[in-house]
Description:
Blueprint: H1 4-20, H2 25-32, H3 36-59, H4 77-85, H5 91-99, H6 114-126, H7 136-143
Helix pairs in contact: 1-2, 1-3, 2-3
Amino acid sequence: MLSQPEQAILNLERARELRASGISYREIGRKLALTPSQIGHIRRALSRAKAAQTRLHSTKPNATDRDLPVTQSVLPFGLRQHLKALGYRTLGDLADSLADPDFPGLERLPGIGPHRARLVRALLDHFGLLPGPHDLQAAVEALFPEFQDGG
């Protein structure tokens, strides 16, 4: 059985997939058996993430998902603020930290336990930013430092 926060994140991921396929929020609530307040939370989270992408692409047309601000992601408010206080401005900053072999892990950071670390990894996985062979931009930036963002 999943804990309440884990179930909320699972519902958010399922709702994101259903919404991407064009299903209304009312129908999503019925399919996932969600309360109106849970649907409201999901609607606000997905709306915030979509607005952040729209803002980013209107100000920087060549921006990627790595450039999305952490503070405007679908992560819970407290976690977004905590990551910002730790110095993570973008999702790319988080992905770079996880890719660093000397980085002890998100769980080791103060105030971030295993559950919050899973949330961050799930978000990075959604955008394809988890370190690994599929992170092409990070590999190019490692080989050619002149392509890194100026910050």
